[in-house]
Design brief:
By secondary structure, the chain is mostly helical. The protein has five helices and no strands.
Length: 105
């Protein structure tokens, strides 16, 4: 194999890059996850300010419930951003539908 093929093989087939515990992950990324969640929730105009904290809790609960997934992640920040975005949008969508249907939280 040539150098390019070797480099690609190392990236594609190497062991997971992430080796941090859930506690370290929380300490390192909590403020970023909170900022992302706050931005999405506040932008919606539907959710209250405490909804962002609900998103943060849900994100780290999902991480804690799936430790095997964390082992497969190569870019933790990108993964957490995606998880936060999807969780926040799910919450906004649910609250929008509840508001539209007249159902109280």
């Amino acid at each position: 194999m040539n150098n390019t093929t070797d480099a690609v093989s190392r990236v594609l087939y190497s062991e997971p890059v992430v080796t941090i515990s859930n506690g370290d992950l929380f300490k390192r990324y909590r403020s970023k996850v909170a900022a992302w969640a706050r931005f999405i929730v506040d932008s919606s105009g539907i959710c209250t300010s405490d909804a962002a904290e609900d998103v943060v809790s849900d994100v780290f609960l999902k991480v804690a419930e799936a430790p095997a997934m964390l082992e497969k992640v190569r870019d933790v920040e990108a993964w957490l951003y995606t998880l936060t975005r999807r969780t926040a949008l799910d919450l906004v969508r649910k609250r929008f539908l509840r508001k539209k249907l007249g159902v109280c939280d």
